[in-house]
Amino acid sequence: MSIILPDWFSIVRREVCHRCSVEGLRNILETGAIRPNDGSFPDTYPQSQDSYARANHYVSLFDFATQTEQECVQQMHYWYRFFFDQKPVTIVILLDRQSLAARLIPNKEAQEHTGERDYPIFLPGVEAFYPEPIPCELFTGYLIICGVYEKIYEYISHHGAFPGLFDRIDRFMKEHEEIYQDR
Fold first, then answer.
1. Predicted model pTM
2. What is the 3-state secondary structure of 125-165?
């Protein structure tokens, strides 16, 4: 059996990215940066409190470029749902890899740091970390991914903060209104 990844995977595959809810995006744009969650933001998942990113005050990111496509597919059960689990949409912020490269902490380094322990928690293979806030100037684009049917998405190439994204999200939901009504 062959697994077919959604089209948006080819975009996140070549970028470092951060995913969030619409409310999370609002907070990011208001503060001017993606910030590590030190517990002052609501947890999206129960395991967030015990995450490697929280324990070390890092920003949690996805970095698929360090894995082969085969490895990404094999680890899909860990990461896939994060890209469409927010309602009504999940927002993926694409980041300038070159600007982050010097301080980016790859998954392999996190594994070496934790050794054989299962604590703190992180996604194997594809989760990466950044030790400080990531300013909006390093954003290279956005994905709006439908929270009902993950193969429906919109890619927006835009450097920096894009306040007009909220209008695009509204338009996206209106364009796909029938899907949201069925759920």
1. 0.90
2. CCEEEECCCEEHHHEEEEEEEECCCCCCEEEEECCCCCCCH
Is 20 inside a domain boundary?
yes
CATH of the domain at 82: 3.20.170.20
165 in a structural domain: yes
Using alpha carbons only, give the angle 17, 19, 22 rounded to the nearest 5 degrees.
140
Residue-number span of the structural domain to which 48 is assigned: 9-182
How does pLDDT run across 11-37, given as a tens digit for each residue?
Answer: 999 889 999 999 999 999 999 999 997
Q: 15 and 95 in contact (C-beta within 8 Å)? A: yes
Sign for the pseudo-dihedral over CA of 71, 74, 75, 81: positive
- Could you read off the pLDDT of 120-153 as tens digits, one per residue? 566 778 899 999 999 999 999 999 999 989 999 9
- For residue 4, tell me if it sits in a domain: no
Q: How many CB atoms lie within 10 A of CB 70?
A: 8
